[in-house]
Amino acid sequence: MGTQSEYKHLVHSDDEEEEDTSLHKDLDIPDLSCNSPVFKTMAAMFGGIMIPCLVAASLAYRSGNSPCTSVDVTTSYGKVRGQHCDETYNFRGIPYACPPNGSLRWRPPQEPTCWNDILDATEFKSMCAQVRPLSATGKVMGSEDCLYVNVWTPSLDHYANLPVMVWIHGGYLLVGSGSVPGYCPTEELTSHSQMVHVSFNYRLNAFGFMALQLLREGSPTNTSGNYGFMDQIAALKWVQKNIKSFGGNPNKVTIYGQSSGGTSVWTLMVSPLAKGLFHRGIDMSGSSVYKATMAETEQVNLVFLDRTGCRDAQCLWNLNIRQILQSAPWIEYPNWAADDLCDLPQKGKFVGPLAVVDGYVVPAPPLDVWKQKKTGYSDVPYVIGTTLQEADVA
């Protein structure tokens, strides 16, 4: 078991470059095979259409015999240029919100600025700022300019009205992206399912889930934390506005996610801010067990504030990515450190999600919302399951 004497995720030294990449190589890929119970149930929900495997080997990008050609689509913010490869169209790295940096750091996502030229959407954009997971030699990866959506579709017919599957990646709310190979949609999945598939990035770690009274005082909603969930809601709003241009039906949207992506589905199911933005939900190995209040979380996160040396929001906005991730209170509160995923359980230590019951995004603990028959949640079909060998240590 690793010691608690050093932050194993942090950048080695100031003279090393931060790694800005959209790919992960260290994430475990769950077994989401076509024979899994979750996908059999999923198939039944869609009238017998079987969603193909989400395993790395079966989701390698199609090589195809035909060269890819450029194709343009008009969104509500401007034109985007993607690719038509074999039987599918793909568009990568379309902004669904402004970059949440500077004074927009720790703020609800803002709509993107419209553009006049054609936006290149042939390459994935950066993952959100994080540290390399499960490694003793971790580096900072990604950037704050990361709120992008990716679309794969078998048709660009405005009237195709195809079902839409929106994938929410896992990673403990600390790591990951919507473009991890083997852990995101692909052309092959799209071709076989004849559905529109969407993935996206959302803010993670301290950038996505830091709750502080200092931040709440400047908030129009009098809340702090859960910024990553707000990003997810913004991405779903983008889908509602634009997916018809990609052949999708905005009235037939299913959200699905695994691990903390499943936890995100729980959150969106009970959030009044997400009501009406989707019509089915699928949780794979997510957790609904989080009850930390905003006041409680703000108190424990004072450790973060002390480490930054900041006493006002302007100071926090001026910190760089490395300084923020170095200040996360991982020693005192191990839920901030993904290394604990590899450690054996310890008495008195709870490694839980960073989600906060803030009364705004999350009005109450998810199970309590249904148990007490509260209003405002999404009353839609919902599949709950676990992935094979979720906790296998063999």
TrEMBL record:
Keywords: Hydrolase
A GO molecular-function descriptor: hydrolase activity
EC identifiers of the protein: 3.1.1.-
Regions that span the bilayer: none
Domain of life: Eukaryota
Pfam families named among the record's database cross-references: COesterase
Top EC class for this record: hydrolase
KW Hydrolase (keyword) present: yes
InterPro entries named among the record's database cross-references: AB_hydrolase_fold (IPR029058), CarbesteraseB (IPR002018), Carboxylesterase_B_AS (IPR019826), Carboxylesterase_B_CS (IPR019819), Type-B_Carboxylest/Lipase (IPR050309)
Domain Carboxylesterase type B positions: 72-391
Basic and acidic residues bias locations: 1-13
Claim: tRNA processing is one of the keywords in the record: no
Location of region: Disordered: 1-24
Family per record: Belongs to the type-B carboxylesterase/lipase family.
Protein's name according to its UniProt entry: Carboxylic ester hydrolase
